[in-house]
Description:
Largest sheet: 3 strands, antiparallel
Low-confidence stretches: none
Amino acid sequence: MQDEVRCPKCRSNQITATKNDFSHRNDIIITCLNCGHQFLPGHGYKPPVSAKSIDDPSLTELDRKVMKIWASGNKLEAVKVYRDETGIGLKAAQQYVQQLNVGTAGSAGNKGCAGVVLLFIAGGALLLLLMH
């Protein structure tokens, strides 16, 4: 069963494909009938995956590139790269990149929880020292 092709900009499934006979490459251009966005085959919307590691075989090269940028701490650049490569809107790109990085080393959720736990441990230890 093939995945449904959707516009990367508005996620509509109302699309049409035309073959460009005037170029030497004979490219196929997909046009969204809802918003008019044009994109190449393979660049349509795909639901994000929550990868556990950058070595996950289900990831595309773009996903790996974005994950590396995210892990380096440059989250805005990760969203920008994904948006530039796919032509997707800002909000959809943010959601995709965040979902892609859920549970990875560079995700904000992991860092925040550890900091709170360490703060409580340190506060408890200080309280015990002051009581004795």
